[in-house]
Design a protein that fits this description.
Pfam families: Glycos_transf_2 (PF00535). By secondary structure, the protein is of the alpha/beta class. It contains ten helices and eight strands. The two termini are 21 Å apart.
């Protein structure tokens, strides 16, 4: 029988969370009296998560485990799970228990009002202050890059299968699920849910990973960096031209000697640095063109629990 719900969970270093996560999802969806499948995509975190997934699959045939050959990232894992999903409604949530399975019914009640996509958003986040601050800045930038993007997006979502399957058609080597969803549909809404507390481990998103994620999205989904490079080039040209006029005026009308070695080197370093920065931006775009032209797969599956 085709499941009504498909729950997709990207798994990374969560061996201590998985059993509780499964139990809570099971109770939550059985209370809705609906058939479901739980798809756990193990993203090679290096711990014992795959063993736990195999044990859960042996206990309950509704649990489907997928293991990657290497670490491909959270968004690749979500897209993989969605590609394998067979339910009419697809639910995604994280593996750290910060998103409470008990709130799934709130998202479902909202989506039944006629929406294609509903996000579970938080009135207050339980992350560290630096994480909330950097996320706020990143979201502001993402909204500039992707105008239709919901500022309050989270990885706790429910979507119709037609919307979910559309994500699989994107071929970017730098996936961003919510950016794709913003292109696929405007018929979305949100519902406020409680932000749970992580019981085991720490967040896998360090500052460097968040910075890399932000740069990937800005370059992959917009031309904002190119526009920034153009404005930097224009400003540096105007600054250099005005500097030249000042030097010539002082030489011709005031008789002050032209600035010496130190100022010349400073000017070369300044404008040379700007040129290299602009070239670096162009290089980021060219690199992404090259990545896409190679047509490398977004992920490669090593094994599934169905193989056993």
């Amino acid at each position: 029988m085709k499941p009504y719900f498909s729950v997709v969970v990207p798994v990374y270093r969560s061996e201590k969370n998985l059993s509780e996560l499964y139990a809570r999802i099971k109770i939550s969806l059985e209370e809705l009296n609906a058939n479901f499948e739980l798809i756990l995509v193990e993203d090679c975190g290096g711990d014992d998560s795959w063993r736990v997934i195999q044990e859960l699959s042996e206990q309950d045939s509704r649990v489907i485990g997928i293991r990657f050959t290497k670490n491909y990232g959270q968004h690749a894992a979500i897209i993989c799970g969605i590609a394998e999903a067979t339910g009419e409604w697809i639910i995604t949530l994280d593996d750290d228990l910060e998103q409470r399975p008990e709130d799934i019914h709130l998202l479902y009640e909202k989506v039944r009002q006629g929406y294609d996509l509903v996000y579970g958003i938080y009135e207050e986040r339980s992350h560290a202050k630096w994480r909330n601050m950097t996320s706020h800045i990143a979201r502001k930038l993402f909204n500039k890059a992707i105008p239709n993007l919901n500022y309050e997006y989270t990885s706790f979502r429910i979507m119709h299968e037609k919307i979910g399957k559309a994500l699989v058609q994107f071929e970017s080597p730098f996936p961003f699920v919510d950016g794709y969803l913003a292109w696929v549909t405007n018929n979305y809404s949100t519902v406020t849910v409680e932000h749970g507390v992580r019981k085991h481990g720490v967040s896998n998103y360090s500052f460097s990973k968040l910075l890399k994620h932000t740069i990937n999205i800005l370059v992959s989904f917009s031309d904002i960096p190119l526009k920034f490079a153009s404005w930097m080039g224009l400003v540096s040209f105007i600054t250099g031209f005005m500097w030249l006029i000042v030097i010539l005026f002082r030489k011709l009308f005031i008789g002050i000697p032209i600035a010496g070695y130190a100022s010349i080197i400073a000017g070369i370093v300044l404008f040379g640095g700007i040129q290299l920065f602009v070239l670096g931006i162009f290089g980021e775009y060219l690199g992404r063109i090259n990545y896409k032209s190679t047509k490398k797969p977004l992920y490669i599956v090593l094994k599934t629990t169905k193989d056993n």
